[in-house]
Design brief:
823 residues; alpha+beta; Calcium-transporting ATPase, cytoplasmic transduction domain A; Calcium-transporting ATPase, transmembrane domain; Rossmann fold; 4 domains; 32 helices; 52% helix
Length: 823
């Protein structure tokens, strides 16, 4: 092995290790900027602007070409910046989770970060360490490794250089050393490890997915291309038929095409997504893929792990009960119940032996005993048989007898007596059935129930028999504070929460009830049913399910597949490597930041740094709010474009010259339209009206938006055209064009302010955007160089009156044709 790796038992030299690291691809600085920029140039929007630029070149309007080129450059940079921010956030998350690794170099122990390990390094492993690379064990002493992160198996695996099987001689990146210590020589690092290969494959698949918003907007732009071309040709042809110069009409046709293109769309979408991502980051939710912000708003089913997400993930002793009907919390125990708790504490590891690898159940019982003042002398014991999953009990010989705690079903069969009112009574089959019924009743409170027993000093700790049932201890994983409220908020926003757990169905149902989830026979599924039912039956059961008990990571994948096949948009939480396929398949994969594996975090779209379900609920509400705001913002932006096209087309058909030039159109689209639309798009969601948000999924960008755009297009074009016609009779053509330019801006601003008033959301940002747009409009009409470049004249009293009248009429028209829930 050392010969193949060109290494030694004392490790590599520091110089050799650094040379090998520099030779790895990971050491090279990643560029990627050129690729990011190129990706932004594939939009249909860029194609239309390119045609407009070509027509401008043909007519000699080089100033127009420069403006169009500036627009394309600005949109490209904005899009690349947004993607770069997402990559930076993901890298920061990876850096935060980087692990230190003790390594032998030059015969001395050094500590390096995981990324600096190279094949041939000799690493040192100890209890509690997480393995930082795939490595071959070179020490003979056996030690145990928990490989659950990779295999899902909870039982530790024995490792040694002398293990008979190949798997026993290899440790894998991301697994945990449970007991013992060892040395191992690194054979693979980074993406060459088993975990790295999984991460890379999942990341590559995930990166190929297109944003839902990009899909919809791209589809809208593609479908709109024939109409844009038709509008441009109509205007050009109408002018040529009236004897106007062809080049002049080509320029006018280019203006119509450019008027139809929402040049500010990339900025609007990018800023809106960034605003949501920033708000989520401040609330402990890190967006690792920008498209997930959009997907969040379409989620209608959230599959959530119980442990550590809905609950705290920390076990507590909640209840102590006798074998009859008495029970109490640890701080309110009677002498008889104190005897039960003390026996349970004795039948646990010695408090002095507790460490990070101790079983959480034992830790909870010993803490409960300490809080009740029953921990004195617990370390005094003559013999002990630790808990073993195959036996399901822990037995301790201490003082005058054996104390045993464990699974009710197992220990109940070993009991021949029961403690009642301080006396021991024989336990027959009916008594055992009553004992099991008592345990089931306690478990229905959401508790994990253990039976506590005692036996004579002569009883074997390895195989205790003839035991006396003393009572029960109940362990719980308490519901997180705010979890029930978060479930309620999800329901109000139209998201059904499905709780996934490995617990017994009775325990799962109790926790679900505490969390406010609907319960009942039709609401409960088990992992066995998930695996055994055919897809059609499973899909039908999942339509009402809110609890899935005794489930495994592999079954999560089938749950996601069935829900998505039924048309649902699914969010799925997970923390292990085995959860990664389900996280990838889900529309929104959600990983835990504290307890999650590196693979889960890198596969996920969203990482909860506090592991709180309330944070996920907040993210889902933010996603709903994103679509709600985007529909309104796009209605304003695209409605403005439709209004400009309508104004230009109507003027051409009426035999008038073009009221707006290419430069004026670009100024309106980039400045006076974008600011108001952005101010609407970045607003926080309406928490007070979650019922409205529940109706605002991604489908709002289809029929609803089209109707909204038509309505706002009419409300913009008709009054502006009317003002332009009146101005044409009262003023010179140049002054009439200035009125058209002013009206097209003010009609859109008036609709935005009216929209804000109607929704009760006339926020400072909206008012500020309106003021900024008006200031820009004024500057283009007053500042001489700008005025000359754009071809507009100074404002006149008559022109301002006409524009004001057009704005008032636009508000009226915007209300006359209601759309959806009021638009």
């Amino acid at each position: 092995m050392f010969r193949r790796l060109d290494s030694f038992p004392d490790g590599l030299s520091d110089v050799e290790a650094r040379a090998r690291w520099r030779a790895r691809p990971e050491a090279a600085e990643g560029g990627g900027l050129g690729e990011l920029l190129a990706d932004q140039l594939t939009s249909p929007l860029v194609a239309v602007l390119g045609v407009g630029a070509a027509l401008s070149v043909a007519t000699g309007a080089l100033g127009d070409v420069l403006m169009i080129a500036s627009v394309v450059a600005a949109n490209t940079l904005v899009g690349a910046w947004q993607e770069s921010r997402a990559h930076t956030a993901t890298k920061a998350l990876h850096d935060l989770s980087a692990r230190a690794a003790p390594v032998l170099r030059d015969g001395r122990v050094q500590t390096v970060v995981q990324e600096e390990l190279v094949p041939g390094d000799v690493i040192l492993l100890a209890s509690g360490d997480r393995v930082a690379a795939d490595a071959r064990v070179i020490s003979k002493e056996p030690f145990e490794v928990d490989e659950a992160a990779l295999t899902g198996e909870s039982i530790p695996t024995l490792k040694s250089a002398q293990a008979p099987a190949e798997g026993g001689r290899v440790v894998l990146d991301g697994t945990d050393v449970v007991t013992g210590s060892a040395r191992a020589v690194v054979v693979a690092v980074g993406e060459d490890t088993r975990m790295g290969a999984i991460t890379a494959a999942l990341a590559e698949d995930s990166n190929g997915r297109q944003s839902p918003l990009d899909e919809r907007l791209g589809r809208m732009l593609v479908h709109g291309l024939p109409w844009i071309a038709a509008g441009g040709l109509m205007v050009t042809g109408a002018g040529i038929l009236r004897g106007r110069p062809a080049l002049t009409q080509l320029a006018l046709g280019a203006s119509v095409a450019i008027a139809a293109v929402p040049e500010g769309l990339p900025l609007l979408a990018g800023v809106a997504v960034a605003a949501v991502a920033q708000r989520l980051a401040s609330r402990n939710a890190l967006v690792t893929r920008l498209a997930s912000v959009e997907a969040l708003g379409r989620v209608d089913v959230a599959c959530v792990d119980k442990t550590g997400t809905l609950t705290t993930g920390t076990l507590e002793l909640t209840l102590v009960a006798d074998a009859q009907d008495a029970q109490a919390a640890p701080g309110e125990l009677t002498p008889a119940l104190e005897e039960v708790l003390r026996a349970a504490a004795v039948a646990s590891p010695s408090p002095d032996a507790l460490d990070a690898q101790s079983h959480p159940t034992d830790v909870a019982i010993l803490r409960g005993a300490r809080s009740a003042g029953l921990d004195r002398g617990l370390g005094e014991r003559q013999a002990e048989s630790p808990f073993d999953p195959a036996r399901s009990f822990h037995a301790t010989l201490a003082g005058d007898g054996v104390r045993v705690k464990g699974a009710v079903e197992v220990l109940g069969e070993r009991c021949t007596r029961s403690r009642r009112d301080g006396s021991e009574v024989p336990l027959d089959e009916a008594g055992r059935a009553a004992l099991l019924h008592r345990a089931a009743s306690l478990a229905s409170q959401g508790l994990r129930i253990l039976l506590v027993t005692e036996g004579a000093a002569e009883a074997s700790v390895e195989d205790p028999q003839d035991l006396t049932a003393l009572g029960f201890v109940g362990i719980s994983d308490p519901l997180r504070q705010g979890a029930a409220d978060a479930v309620r908020r999800c329901s109000e926003a139209g998201v059904r929460v499905v709780m996934l757990t490995g617990d017994h169905p009775a325990t799962a149902t109790a926790i679900a009830s505490q969390a406010g989830l609907p319960t009942g026979e039709d609401r409960l599924l088990t992992g066995e049913e998930v695996s055994g039912l055919d897809y059609e039956t499973l899909s039908g059961r999942l339509e009402r399910a809110t609890i899935i008990a005794r489930t495994t990571p592999l079954q999560k994948l089938r749950i996601v597949e069935a829900l998505r096949a039924a048309g649902h948009v699914v969010a799925m939480t997970g923390d292990g490597v085995n959860d990664a396929p389900a996280l990838r398949l889900a529309d929104v994969g959600v990983a835990m930041g504290r307890g999650g594996t590196e693979v889960a975090r890198q596969t996920a779209d969203l990482v909860l740094s506090d592991d709180e379900f309330a944070t996920l609920a907040e993210a889902l509400v933010e996603g709903r709010g994103f679509w709600h705001n985007m529909r309104r913002a796009l209605g304003l932006l695209l409605g403005g474009n439709a209004g400009e096209v309508g104004l230009m087309t109507a003027s051409a058909l009426a035999g008038r010259s073009g009221p707006l030039t290419t430069r004026q159109v670009l100024t309106v689209n980039l400045v006076t339209d974008v600011f108001p639309a952005v101010s609407v798009a970045i607003q926080p969601p309406e928490h007070r009206n979650l019922a409205r948000l529940s109706r605002e999924g991604g489908g709002a960008l289809d029929a609803r938006l089209r109707a909204d755009v038509i309505r706002r297009g009419i409300a913009t074009a008709a009054p502006s055209f009317g003002a332009y016609l009146l101005a044409s009779r009262l003023m010179a053509p140049a002054a009439a064009g200035t009125v058209a330019y002013t009206s097209i801006v003010t009609t859109q601003l008036a609709q935005m302010i009216d929209l804000g008033q109607a929704e009760g959301r006339l926020t400072p940002s909206v008012l500020g955007a309106a003021a900024g747009s008006l200031a820009t409009l004024g500057a283009t009409m007053v500042v001489p160089p700008v005025r000359t470049f754009l071809g507009v004249g100074p404002p006149s009293v008559v022109g301002l009156v006409l524009a004001a009248g057009a704005s008032g009429l636009a508000v009226v028209l915007g209300r006359v044709v209601p759309v959806g829930d009021g638009g």
